[in-house]
Specification:
The complex is a heterodimer.
Chain A (H helix, E strand, L loop, with lengths): L4 H27 L3 H16 L1 H6 L6 E6 H6 L3 H12 L15 E5 H4 L10 H5 L1 E5 L7 H5 L5 E3 L5 E3 L9 H5 L6 E2 L25 E2 L5 H4 L6 H6 L5 E5 L6 H8 L15 E4 L1
Parallel strand pairs in A: 1-9
Antiparallel strand pairs in A: 1-8, 2-3, 4-5, 6-7
Chain B lengths: L3 H15 L1 H5 L23 H21 L5 E5 L2 E4 L2 H8 L7 H7 L6 H4 L6
Classes of the chains: A alpha+beta, B mainly alpha.
Chain lengths: 277, 124
């Protein structure tokens, strides 16, 4: 064994080169593309996912949505309270006076709280004076569904972001994920906040420790009826419900004829609820 | 064995003591629960024996079909009538008493299903 220092350095150098360059060469051979091409392809793919136009061109299945006509709600000031009450009565939503325990499926809020991305500098009188009706947006890309560890919340084939309370473990990840505050947690036994003699006996209550929210009246829509809030609006047509993927639906016609806005569109959740201001 | 005279009778007494429930109740299964069946209706979703053995799987299946698949329609045939897949809106419409129907067996078998934490039992 008379290894010279010169030989040792040669071998050490070659090994270092092989160690650094080898994986890169192998990777390129396996994928069959140069890094520049791979990056371009990936970029195009990402673009395709984000692009709103491509989404509109290739709809799959039903996507139920709602248009809220705030002009009509301003014209009928008593209507909002009626809608909230009808929804909460239909779904046995409890009432707790303490704000911390509050459960809400649909509620009224100020314009600048609902539409945080819009400019509120020198707002007009009418907008300041009138509330907005807000509820679950039944997003096309719902962040709550991604956050749920048990798949208790999920998107149905009709595009409704639904809850399966049997599976909810009450971790409240979905509440943290929802940018609209559409979800409420049952800190207390909801039956304590309900008049059990006057509840809707065709729809369950919830139990303590689960998260709840608007279900787009899946129990009525599933039977071919309209959601309760839309039914209450009646001839005022303050809320219009329908399939956003059906080009002949009433909701698509309303969307075509009116300028509408959505809540926090920049977040990429693709809300299915639109507002005519 | 040292002290065998004490250990062996002690063991026998111990074994007799811990098996007390077995030999005291031998040949006697206790009062068999008698759930009260609806008087007006004779047929259920499945034959009697299947309902008794598998009603919990049936309810789970219905739950998944309704909530997960969005299959809310009236597609359960009992006799000549179509019903929804629903505990509150179908089962409990015939079995009008939770106490006299559900609870009698569940209490006997010491099972505590959590259905009624959310679902609303009929007024009794």
């Amino acid at each position: 064994m008379d290894k010279k220092r010169r030989d040792f350095l040669k071998i050490a150098g070659a090994t270092t080169l092989a160690g650094l360059g080898g994986p890169a060469v192998v990777e390129r051979l396996v994928s069959g593309t140069s890094p520049a091409q791979a990056k371009a392809a990936h970029g195009a793919e990402t673009h395709g996912v984000v692009s709103e136009h491509e989404k509109e061109n290739a709809p799959t299945g039903r996507r139920l949505g709602m248009v809220v006509d705030l002009r009509q709600l301003k014209k009928h000031p008593e209507l909002m309270e009626k809608i909230v009450h009808a929804c909460h009565a239909q779904h046995n939503v409890p009432h707790f006076p303490n704000k911390k325990d509050e459960i809400k499926w649909i509620w009224r809020t100020e314009f600048d709280k609902a539409f945080t991305e819009h400019s509120h500098y020198h707002k007009d009188k009418l907008t300041i004076a009138n509330d907005v009706l807000v509820f679950c947006n039944h997003c096309d890309e719902p962040p709550c569904v991604k956050a749920c560890p048990t798949r208790a919340t999920f998107k149905t084939k009709d595009g409704i972001v639904a809850m399966d309370y049997h599976r909810c473990i009450g971790c409240r990840f979905c509440m943290a994920a929802c940018p609209y505050g559409s979800r409420s947690f049952n800190w207390r036994d909801p039956r304590a906040g309900l008049d059990m003699n006057r509840i809707n006996r065709h729809f369950p209550t919830r139990m303590r420790g689960v998260v709840e929210k608007c279900n787009f009246c899946a129990e009525l829509v599933g039977l071919g009826k309209l959601p309760k809030c839309v039914e209450v609006c009646g001839s005022t047509r303050a809320m219009i419900f329908g399939d956003l993927n059906d080009p002949d639906s009433e909701i698509r016609k309303v969307l075509k004829d009116n300028f509408t806005i959505q809540r926090k569109p920049s977040l990429g959740t693709h809300p299915s609820v639109f507002y005519i201001v | 064995m040292y002290d065998g005279g004490k250990i062996i009778p002690g063991l026998i007494i111990f074994v007799l003591f811990i098996t007390f429930p077995v030999w005291y109740n031998r040949g006697n299964a206790g009062a068999v629960p008698q759930p009260e069946l609806p008087k007006k209706f004779k047929e259920c979703v499945l034959p009697y024996a299947d309902m008794r053995a598998e009603h919990m799987q049936l309810l789970n299946r219905w739950r998944d079909q309704v909530l997960r698949t969005g299959d809310w329609g009236f597609d359960v045939k009992i006799g000549d009538t179509m019903y929804q897949k629903s505990l509150m809106n179908t089962c409990m419409q015939c079995h009008t008493s939770k106490k006299k129907f559900c609870d009698r067996c569940h209490t006997y078998a010491s099972v505590k299903p959590y259905c009624w934490d959310c679902h609303i039992a009929p007024v009794e």
